[in-house]
Structures are given as structure tokens and as C-alpha cells.
Amino acid sequence: MNLVAKLLPPGNVVLDLPVSSKKRLFEQIGLLFENHHGIARNLVFDSLFDRERLGSTGLGQGIAIPHGRIKGLKDALGAFVRLAQPVPFDAPDGKPVSLVFTLLVPEQATEKHLQILSELAQMFSDRDLRDALAGAPDAGTLHRLISAWQPDAAGPRQAAA
Amino acid sequence: MKIVILGAGQVGASVAESLVSEHNDLTVVDLDATRLRALQDRLDLRTVTGSASHPSVLVEAGIEDADLLVAVTQSDETNLVACKIASRLFNVPRRIARVRATDFLNDEKVLGPEGFEVDLSICPEQVLTDYIVKLVEFPEALQVLDFAGGRVSLVAVRAYRGGPLVGHPIRDLRQHIPGVDTRVVAIFRKDAAVAPDGNTAIEANDEVFCLAATKDIRQVMRELRRMDQPVRRVMIAGGGNIGLRLARALEDDYSVRIIDHNKRRCEMLAAKLDRALVLNGDGTDEELLEQESIGEMDLFVAVTNDDENNIMSSLLAKRLGARRVVALINRRSYVDLLQGAQIDIAISPAQATIGKLLAHVRRGDVVAVHSLRRGAAEALEAVVHGDRDSCRLTGRRIEEIELPPGTNIGAIVRGEEVLMAHHDTRILAEDHVIVFVTDKKILPRVEKLFQVGARFL
Description:
heterodimer, A: alpha/beta, 45% helix, B: 16 helices, 31% helix, globular
């Protein structure tokens, strides 16, 4: 099991969420963490927006990995959202974003958290996985795809990089 | 970024204009449909006619998707209520309001999280007062701007024939004032930017922008221009909000005369001012000006709310012998027409005001922005984050950084320390970097420099 799968409960995978902007996406993500984990939605919302201000977390190719530090959080937590319509995200390639992995980490972030981000970036640079995620029929399949992904089996693209 | 602007007046229109070119999605709300149409004809944006603080109007303007609300209508109350509603009902992450009345500004609670939830309040009258006070303190400068909490200053001066630096290359500056480090970050010659390096020779009439630690700024200015006589006597035409603030700020240290045409306003001014001399009359009245020894004035400032009046009275004052005249001019075309001719300094209130606001719109951790040369150029201060991998500035020497042409890193503030940027200065995380950009078209590329990569935590 990869690092990412450990922090992604199956309930935190949402399919075809209808939002019209980055702001509404963050609202929905805040709501998700509030409902599932009891973290105040505004805390999540503000934390994600503050990070975004320093530079977009868009990776390109329609992927974003918004993340933020949350005071009082014990362990890192993730959520994966596939959007019904892509939204503008200020990504380096200028493309709107439709696959979004959100990562919340404790206020005192560690090397491990950087590794998680790094693994996320690596995971989403895998074109086959991206295509599979975009085409998956339900949340269960999405969750299985992410859990089954292996860092060292990332395909020739990754090996070249 | 999705931005909703409330109010299509001078400030609203200037804000819209400076943001519209940068891939932002703008909607402007105003009660006046004609005004909106004029704006829409000129700029690529959406408009909504209606009352700016009404939730239904805000929804129509797309507030639910907005990243930023800029409330700059004429009414403080409308702006405050709009911010509160935007926060409470629509969760807009950042809210900026124009607030004029000092009553609202005196207590933090009014604007704070328990109050109207305004992240940043802008008071144009105060910004303009500060601007003019600097001109009184530094009579050689066209403009003096602060960075890094006042530790660094940017000064603009006009080089004149016979001045100490004209005809000499910039590097001579260092020999003239060996103990002082300063950097010429931009030179504008006949309205075109000249990229300065050590060998660039300054010519008469050049507009020279120079950065230095604030403590050194007087010495630098003395080098750029022969020291003008310090200001002692100031005459202010117009006793409105700006006139009054200005008179109050200056009356203890200078001899101040203030003219207003409204008798009752004059009585009010007299009650609020301790030392300044209040005169009832017209700033364009030649006889009055002469009677009040206009020829002995070191500075004449026209700050009525009427452009034409300000232009005429300052032209008249100049002809009657006032040493330096400053006019507040709202219309952009007038500013371009008059600055540097008979009027020494033409100030566009909207341009002077929007800098604070732009700091919130620029991408990256931008702390301060000053919009210069009628919005064509910009000086900004931003904090650098991350490391060599996640940011294009961090850990690098200036000479290693690929700067877009027309960009000049002027200074670095590291904690309390002010460093002038040299080719071998290394930028570290958490440094405040001050950059001069001669053409706003390259701003998106400059913003990119300060942004961290997606993997920065």
C-alpha cells in the first residue's frame, strides 16, 4: 500500500462534484472534512486558500493537489474529488482542473508530509492512472485505483523523469 | 481570479482597468447603468446594475464564486455591509473596502472579524495626505514610497540640467557617497524606459527611480539633485477631507494657509485647526492669492474636488511665483497632459490609491505594491518562500536568476537588515524582495518568480 492510500478513507472519494469555481470547490472540500472528521469547514477553507495564494497547487494536465496545515490535526488526511466540470485553477499549463486530491497535514509538518506530496505528484504524473481515474464508473473503483498504485511501477514516463 | 468590484467611480474604474488585462474574471456593480456601459465599452468585463449591498445583486454578480470582493462605492456604509454579507452569506475569502470616515477606522472592532469583516480598508484621503506630506518633507522628489514597513524608500526625481549627476554614469554615484548603498532601478527618458546599468549616463529631464535604505534617502537625494530649499510655507486650495487632513498633518511644523470657498466649511476648518490660517475665498482668485503672498509659498497644493479648478489654481499659483505646485487631477488624460509642464506634480487619486489593493490581487506572497507612472509601471515587495526546488528565487544569486526584461531587483530586506541588490547577493527564504517592473505587461512573469511550486507545503 502506498503512502497516499493510508490517509484516504473510502468515504473521502467524491465523484463528479458539480462546482463552478475553485472557491466553491474549497467550500465543498471544507464541508466534507467537517462532516467526516469534525474539522471546522472554515479552517479547511482558509488553510487551502492561504496556501494557494503563495502559488497554485495545480500540477498541470487537469490535476491539482491543494493542501494546508490544520491546527490540532493529529495525522495527515486526504480527500479525492473528481469534478463534473473542470474549473480554472491557475495551473502552470493554464488548463482547468478536474481531478483534485486535497491533503491536510498537522501544523508541524514533517518530512513524511513532504514525501506524501511528492508521491502524489508522482502518482498523477502517471498518464495511465490519470486516464483510469477520469473514466472510473464509481467512487469504489477510484479508491481501488489509488490504493493499488505502486510508486515503483509508475511506468516508463516516471522512470525517465 | 474571480473578482467582484462594487462601484464604478474613479477608484472602481481604475481597479478594473489595472486588473482586466491579467486573466482575471471581473464583474463591476453600480447603480448607474450609463457609467457601467462606458466601462464595458472600454474593458472586457461583466457589469450588473443594482444596489451593491443587496444579496440578490451580489449573487447576480457572481459573488458565490468570487475569490475577492473590492467594495469601493461612494458610501462607506454600503461598502461595509457588502463585506459583511460577502463573508457571512457567501464565504468570500478576501474582502477589501474603501472606508473614508475616521469614525469607522478608529476602533479595530468595527472592521474586524466581529465587526464588518473587512480584511483591508482603504482610505483614499489618507493615502493622498501621506503622499503630499512626503512631498513637503522631500521637496526634491516627485514621489517617495515606503517598503518593508518604512525601512526602504523608493524615490522618483527629475534630473535637471546642471544637476550633480547629469552627464555622469550611474556608477559614479557610489564614489560620490561611499558610505551609502543605493540602486537606480529605473530611468524613464521621454516616457520610454531605459534599462539602467552602471554605465548608463543620466540625462537632463530623466525621471530617475532610486531605492535606498530610508535612513540614507536624504543623502541619496542630495546627490541626485542639488538640495532644494526646505519647505516652510504651504498653501492649500480646497478645505475638503483631503485639505483638512493635510492641514492638520502639516500645521505644527510648517506655516499653512488653507483656502475654501464655502463660508461654513471655513468656520468648521477654523474650529478643527489650531495653527493653520483659514481663508474664505476662491483658489483661482488672483487677487486673493497675491494678497496672501503666493510668491513666497514653497508649495501650493490644489485639492478641491474639481479637476479644472485644481488645474487653473495651480497654474495661476505657479505663474504668480509659488516655488512648486501640486494638483490633484482625477482625469487621466489631464494628468498626462499637465504633469511636468507648468504643474510640477499632478497626482491621480485613483492611481495613488490602488497600490494597496493590488497587493491583494497579485499572485505570490505580495506585501506591498505601488502603482507608478499612471499604472504603466509597478514596484512591488514580496516574500520569498520555499527552497531551490520549489521557488525560482530562493537560494540563488541575483545573477543566476532569469529576470524578464524590464524587471529589476532593487533591494532585499532580511529581518531588520536592508541589503541593496548586487549581482552576487543571494536570496534566502523569507527575504522580502523589492522589484521594479517598468512595464505592467510583464507582471504575470514576475509574479511567477515569487510563486512556489505545487509541492511546497
